[in-house]
Design goal:
By secondary structure, the protein is of the alpha/beta class. 43% of the residues lie in helices and 7% in strands. It is built from 13 helices and four strands. Helix 6 packs parallel to helix 12 and helix 8 packs across helix 9.
């Protein structure tokens, strides 16, 4: 697991981080800030579909909505022109780490579901398939992260700002339950005029079925080409981000001990700030 930590940390370089700090933020910019595996790619596709009226000519989604932390190493200038307006960016950074002055779309997800999805994402790319158990990954990686890399730090940083007019918070489970409502809210938030035809197009192109059919456009191949060799990863790793996205799928997979640890951390760090005893309660408080 120490090697995994080193490799994942090396995915982004000091030059990349400096480039993020040099972003000239515009008031109409859209920054999608999510913790990993909480619906980032899904929201990228919704935002891009709305602003481009369904243009799918990109090779990989991060070519058109840049991943801020790795854009520089992928040959993308964050201050460069984008093909459509408003400009949009993706990040996993917390609110405290991001430049001010943009519009921010945040997607939250049940932390245990996010952890299991993160494990599946890394398994076969950063980790040899089957080499690390889910409980080991959870204990020695997901729960061992520090600072802004922690799920709970990211969530709390945005919860404090949930009432700001330039911040819109969604829950993964609510998008899953009513994607049309999400599309309408996002369109209004980023000032895109939405008619029935565009709404149906975006719903179709952001559906799990459509994104699975076009999974190579959502598999981080841009990042893999730029960084895998440099951090010692094999060139044939798999990293598809489009999965079933089942709600509550983590419950039977995590051990009772690990699940209890998630509950404990929530009560220690999230409940004092939000009043929510668990993630399900948090969804009803927004």
């Amino acid at each position: 697991m120490a090697e995994l930590n080193q490799q994942f940390a090396a995915s982004t370089t000091a030059a990349c981080r400096s480039h993020v700090a040099e972003l000239n933020v515009r008031a109409d910019d859209v920054i999608i800030s999510t913790y990993p595996k909480c619906g980032t790619t899904w929201m990228q596709q919704i935002v891009h579909g709305l602003r481009s009226h369904g243009d799918m000519t990109f090779g990989e989604i991060s070519e058109v909505i840049p991943f801020m932390e790795v854009a520089y190493d992928c040959g993308i200038d964050l201050n460069g022109p984008q093909g459509y307006s408003p400009r949009a960016f993706k990040t996993h950074m917390s609110a405290d780490e991001l430049p001010e002055g943009a519009r921010y779309i945040v997607v939250l997800r049940d932390p245990m579901d996010a952890c299991v999805s993160f494990f599946n994402f890394m398994n076969g790319w950063y980790m040899e398939p089957g080499a690390v158990s889910l409980d080991t990954f959870t204990k020695e990686y997901f729960l061992a992260l520090s600072g802004g890399d922690r799920y709970w730090t990211h969530l709390c940083s945005w919860w404090k700002r949930r009432h700001e007019p330039n911040v819109r918070i969604f829950c993964f489970e609510d998008i899953k339950q009513d994607p049309a409502a999400c599309v309408r809210i996002v369109a209004q938030f980023i000032d895109i005029e939405l008619d029935d035809q565009l709404e149906q197009l975006v719903l179709e192109q952001s559906s799990i079925e459509f994104m699975l059919r076009h999974k190579h456009q959502f598999d981080d191949n841009l990042l893999r080409r730029a960084r895998d060799a440099a951090i010692g990863l094999p060139p044939d790793g798999e990293s598809s981000k489009v999965k079933s996205g089942k709600v509550g799928a983590s419950k039977p997979l995590l051990s009772e001990h690990m699940a209890a640890r998630f509950d404990e951390i929530w009560r220690e760090e999230v409940t004092p700030l939000t009043g929510a005893k668990c993630y399900r309660d948090l969804r009803s408080l927004r």
